[in-house]
């Protein structure tokens, strides 16, 4: 589900300094990881926290390819 960015969003991103862009990117990454972690934990209650973290990493890595 890809949605195009609004021109104002693009302009705001262009005006941001690199520190702010980095912070926003880290926040977005943390939100995605938390959502994936919650989904895996809900679907597989038998997994330990270490196993869940491993599955989160696997999911994120697969999503990038």
Distance between the termini: 16 Å
Overall, the morphology is elongated
- Alpha-beta classification: mainly alpha
Beta strand % = under 5%
What is the helical fraction, as a range of percent? over 70%
Please report the number of helical segments.
3
SSE string: HHH
Largest sheet: none
Mean pLDDT, rounded to whole units?
93
What do you see in this structure?
This protein is mainly alpha-helical and 65 residues long. It has one domain (19-64). Helices cover 78% and strands 0% of the residues. The chain is built from three helices and no strands. It has helices at residues 7-15, 18-43, 49-64. Helix 2 packs across helix 3 (49-64). The protein is elongated and about 45 Å long.
What is the fold's blueprint, element by element?
Elements (H helix, E strand, L loop, with lengths): L6 H9 L2 H26 L5 H16 L1
Helix pairs in contact: 2-3
What would the keywords be for this entry?
single chain; 78% helix
Provide a compact summary of the structure:
This protein is mainly α and 65 residues long.
């Amino acid at each position: 589900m890809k949605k195009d960015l609004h021109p104002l969003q693009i302009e705001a991103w262009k005006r941001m300094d690199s520190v702010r862009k980095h912070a926003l990117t880290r926040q977005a990454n943390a939100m995605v990881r938390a959502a994936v972690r919650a989904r895996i934990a809900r679907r597989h209650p038998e997994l330990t926290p270490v196993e869940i973290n491993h599955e989160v990493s696997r999911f994120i890595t697969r999503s990038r390819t």
